[in-house]
Amino acid sequence: MQATLTQNLIFQSEVKDRSDKLINYFLAFYFLVGLGLAPFYDTWLIAIGIGGICILAYYSTKLLLPASSLYQYVLSAVLGIFMAQFIYQMHGMFEMHFFAFISSAILITYQKWKLQLPLLIVVVIHHATFSYLQNIGFGGIYFTQLNYFDLQTFIIHVLLTGVIMFICGLWSYQLRKYSEQQVAQTMKMAELQQEAMLSLERKQNQELLEHSNQQLLSSNRELLEARQAADQANQEKSIFLATMSHEIRTPMNGVIGMSSLLNETALNDEQRMFTDTIINCGETLIHVINNILDFSKIESGSLELESDDFSLRQAIEDVLDMFAVKAAQLKLDLVYEIAEDVPPNIMGDPLRLKQVLINLMSNAIKFTEKGEIGIKVDIHKIGVDGNMTLRFDVWDTGIGIPEDKLHRLFKAFSQVDSSTTRKYGGTGLGLAICEKLVHLMNGEIDVESKDGEGSSFYFTINTMAGINNTVAANNCNIDDLKGKKILVVDDNQTNLTILKRQFENWNLRPILTSSGAEALVALQKDKQVDLVITDMEMPVMDGMMLAKLIKESYPQLPIILLSSIGEEFKSDDRKLFISIMNKPIKQQILSKQVFTALRNRSAKQEEVTVKSKLSADFCDQYPFNILIAEDNEVNQHVIKHILNKMGYQPHIVSNGKEAVKVMQEGLHSLILMDMQMPIIDGLEATRMIRAINIKQPVIIALTANAMDTDQQLCLQAGMDDYISKPVKLDELMNKLSKWHTISLKPLYE
Q1: Which of 118, 173, 411, 688 is geometrically suited to a Cys-Cys bond with 76, CB 3.0 to 4.6 A?
Q2: Rg of the Cα trace of the chain?
C-alpha cells in the first residue's frame, strides 16, 4: 500500500512537470494572440498591460510558492481573464468566447477537476457583469455584437459553458483515476514479477540448500569419523604414555631407590659424590618424564587446578631452597621480594604455581654464570569481589636471549639454540608448560630480554586473598628496638635494596655499604652501630676478613654472616659471628636472628649434621606386618631393603594370585600392591581381598603411572592410597605414619 502511494506521488509529480512545460507554450501563445488582435481596434495597451499582468501573476506565484499548487488555480483564473481580454479587443466578437472552452480543455492536462472552478467563476462574473452593463447602455463596454442579449440567452450561454467545463472536469477526474489504476496495476504487475523471481530464486536456493545439506551431512560424517579416530588416538596416546611411564619409572625406581640406600651407608667423599650424581641424574630424568606427562595432560584438557589456601612466601622460599645449593656452587645470589600489600596467604594451586616458578628458576640457573637470580611479586590489579591479579617477575643476569629468537620460547619442543653443538640441553617443554599453566590460572606470561644482558620472565595469575590471611608474628617485642642502627655490607645492590626496605618496615635504621672498606669507614664515622650484617662473598675483602677487622676494633659488636649453602668454617672463624645465615634469606629467620642479636643474646651455632632418614626403630613407632606384591625383582629388592632399614621384615609375593592366597590367612595389616602384575593384577587382587571375610588391611598401590585416571582406578578398586614409583623415602615414611594413625580406628571389619 505504501509503495503504491509513493508511486502515485511520483506519477503526479511527473504529470505536473509535463503540464507546466506545456503551459509555458500556451501562455506565450495567448500573449501573442492578444498582440495579434491589437491592430484591429488599436488595443495595444490592453494586450500588453492585461496580458503582461496575467503572465506576471502566474510566474510570480509559481516562484514564490514552489511547494504549493496555488499557481495552478491562478493559471485557471488567468486563462479566463485572457478570454475576457480577447472579447474586449474584438469588441464582443462571438467567436472569442470559445477561448473559455479552449482554456478548459488545456487545464485537463493537470488531471484536476477543481481547476475548472476558477475559470468558470471568471467566465460567469465576466458574462453577467459585461452583458448587463452593455444592455443598460454603459459606454466602452464590449461583450457581444448582437443588438440584444436578454436573460434567457445569458442563462443558456452560461449553462452551456458550465456543461462544457463540467465535461472537461469529468475528463480530468477520469484521467487521474485511470492513471492511479494504471499505477496500481503496474505496481501489482511488478510485485507479481518480483514474487515470480523470488519464487524462482527460492526454488534455486532450496536446491542449493539441499545440495549444501548433503555436503554438510557428508562433512559431518567425515568429522565424526575423524573425531572418533582422534579420540581413539588420544586414548591410545594416553595408554602409551601410561605404559611408557610405567616402563621408565620401574627401572628408575631401582636406580634411585638403590642409590638412596647406598647413600645411607658409610661412604667416603668420592663414593658419596658418585651416589649423589646418580640420584641427581635420576631425579632429572624423572623431571623430564613428568614434564612430558604434564604437557600431555594439559593438551588433552585433563589437568584441573586445585584451589587451596596457602602461604605465598612459604611457596617461594620452598622453590628457592631447591636451587640454593646449585646457586652456591655457581656463586650466584638468590633474592626474592614480596610487596608489602600482597596478602600473606592466597587462594590457588600451590603445586602448579611452584611448577611454573621452578621451571623459570631452572632456566635462570642454567643460563646464568655470574650475578643474581631473583623473584619479585606485587599486585598488578585489584578487581571486584576480592579478586586480584598478582604479577611474578623471575629475572637473571645471564646470557640473555636474542630478539629474533624470543618468538620461539613458548613453543613446545622448541629451543633457542637447537643446533647439535648447543651448550645447553633440555626438552624444550618447560616454558610451553609454564604458558599453559599460567593460562589455566587466568593469567598471561611474557619475557623481556637483551642478548648478553640477562632476561626477565613475568607472568600474572588471577587469585584472591586467603582465609588464613594473618601475618605471622615475630614472637619478639620490637618496641624497645625501634631506631637501632644496622650496618649492611653486600656488593649486590638488589640485596641491599631488599634488606633496606625490610629493616625500615621493622622501624630499624639501615646503613648500606657495598664493600668491606666502605663498612670500616662507616663504622669510624658512626660508632653507634648496633649490628653488622655482612655477605661472605665480596671482592677484595670478603665477609670473614671484614669480621676479623671489626672484632679487633669493636669486639662487642655483634655480626651476622650471610653465607652460601655448603661453605665450611673453622671453629675459630665461627666464633666471629653470633649467627651464620644461609642464602637465600628467609624473612622469619632473619627477623629472629636480628632481634636476638640486637638484644645481645648469645645464639648457639647450629651444627649441621647428616642424619639418616632411615631409622631401625621406625617400625616400633608405626608397627605393621607388611606384604609386598611386586613382580619386578629390582623393585622387590629396593622396597625390601628400605623396609629392612626401617626395622620391618616384609613378606614378598610376585603376583596378585599369591597375594590373595597369603591374605586369606589374615596375618598382614598393610599391603604395598603393584598395579601391573601377571596372572592377577593389583586392582583385581584388591577387589578379591576386600571380599574375603578377614580383618581388612591397609592397601597402598605402587603405581608407575602418573595419570589421574590410574590413581582414581586404585581408589575405586578399594585401595586406600597410592605411591608413585620410584618410591621416595620421605613419601613412604609419611604414608606408613599416616595409615598407622588412621588404622587405630578399624576401617574394615
Answers
A1: 118
A2: 54
Report residue 1 as a C-alpha cell: 500500500
Question: What is the distance between the alpha carbons of residues 343 and 664, in angstroms, rounded to a whole number?
Answer: 55
**Helix extents (H) in 108-147:** 116-135
Q: Which residue has the higher pLDDT, 4 or 225?
A: 225
Cβ atoms of 655 and 682 closer than 8 Å: no
Return the exposure string of 500-537: e unless at least 16 CB atoms fall within 10 Å of the residue's CB, then b: bebbeebebebbbbbbbebbbebbeeeeebbbbbbbbb
CA distance 691 to 653: 20
pLDDT of 475: 44
* Section 43-72 average pLDDT: 91
**Is the confidence at residue 69, as pLDDT, over 90?**
no
Asked whether the predicted pLDDT for residue 289 surpasses 60, the reply is yes
Nearest to 707 by CA among 285, 282, 240, 230: 240
d(CA 674, CA 668): 16
Query: Which grid coordinates belong to 546?
Result: 671484614
3-state DSSP assignment of residue 655: coil
Longest dimension (CA), the chain: 164
Q: How confident is the model at residue 9 (pLDDT cuts 50, 70, 90)?
A: confident
The amino acid that residue 496 corresponds to is L
CA distances from 55 to 47, 52, 59, 62 (A): 12, 5, 6, 11
Nearest residue to 491 (alpha-carbon basis) of 516, 520, 515:
515
Give the residue-averaged pLDDT of 322-326.
Answer: 80
What DSSP line would sit under 49-60, residue for residue?
Answer: HHHHHHHHHHHH
Distance CA 259, CA 726 (A): 12
| Helical residues (DSSP H) of 599-632, grouped into ranges | 618-621
- Does residue 518 contact residue 526 with C-beta atoms inside 8 Å? no
C-alpha grid cell, residue 541: 675483602
Residues 655 and 683 sit within 8 Å (Cβ to Cβ): no
Distance in angstroms (rounded) separating the CA atoms of residues 175 and 301: 79
| Per-residue model confidence (pLDDT) at position 566 | 55
Residue 194, number of CB atoms within 10 A of its CB: 10
Nearest one of 367, 369, 387 to 379, comparing CA atoms: 387
CA 126 vs CA 87, 141, 144, 190: distances in Å: 10, 11, 12, 50
Q: CA dist 507 to 313, 336, 474, Å?
A: 21, 21, 14
**The pLDDT value given to residue 421:** 39
pLDDT of residue 192: 86
Query: What does the DSSP 8-state code read for residue 37?
Result: H
CB of 313 within 8 A of CB of 338? yes
- Look at residue 511 in the predicted model and tell me its pLDDT: 92
Over residues 78-105, the mean pLDDT reads 88
- Does pLDDT of 444 surpass 90? yes
Q: The dihedral of CA 411, 413, 415, 417: what is its sign?
A: negative
Cβ atoms of residues 120 and 162 within 8 Å: yes
DSSP code at position 691: T
Chain centre to alpha carbon of residue 471: 33
Q: Quote the CA–CA distance of 705 and 674 in Å, as a whole number.
A: 11
pLDDT at 685: 93
Helix, strand, or coil (residue 453) = coil
Answer for the pair 533, 499: CB distance below 8 angstroms, yes or no: yes
Sheet containing 670-674: which strands, arranged edge to edge? 651-653, 626-629, 670-674, 698-703, 721-724
C-alpha cell read off for 572: 675459630
For residue 748, is pLDDT > 50?
no
